Amino acid sequence: MPSMKTLDDLLRVDQGYEPVLSNMLEVSRQIGERLRRQRVAFDWRQADVAERAGVSVQTVKAVEKGDPVSGESLLRLLLAFGHGCDLIRMLESPHFPDLDSHQRYVEMGGAATSVHKRVRGKAGA
Question: What positions does the domain HTH cro/C1-type occupy (predicted)?
């Protein structure tokens, strides 16, 4: 049985087609920097973002500094900046660890189809 991967292992991309983000702190820093740039470009104050997202100003400041925040707060902020569709598209185009995973995904109909497995045989069978 394969050993459990650490969070750093999951964040590291060794396929050669993406830059390596070495750890959670770097990911948090990059997210914070990008959201701060968008906020400034939109001419929004941190208080404006907080109100739109339904989070505190302290949470906005923490994200912009690269401090970790809850998943719910991060999702609220991303939605406030209009990134809801981006998140959905990202999940529809996963990075597959191997060809078998990709094949199973295609056979399931990709992201557009939910997975249902029949546990019992058909009635009357």
Answer: 35-87
Nearest to 54 by CA among 28, 79, 82, 85: 79
68: CB partners within 8 A, 6+ apart: 24, 28, 62
Record the pTM: 0.61
Q: Which domains does the chain have, with CATH numbers?
A: 7-81 (1.10.260.40)
10-59 pLDDT tens trace: 555 454 434 545 577 888 899 999 999 999 999 999 999 999 999 999 99
DSSP characters for the chain? -PPPPPHHHHH---SSSS----SHHHHHHHHHHHHHHHHHHTT--HHHHHHHHTS-HHHHHHHHHT----HHHHHHHHHHTT-HHHHHHHHHS---SSHHHHHHHHHTTGGGS------SPPTT-
C-alpha pair distances (Å), 112 with each of 6, 78, 103: 30, 22, 15
For residues 4 and 41, give the distance between their C-alpha atoms in angstroms, rounded to a whole number: 41
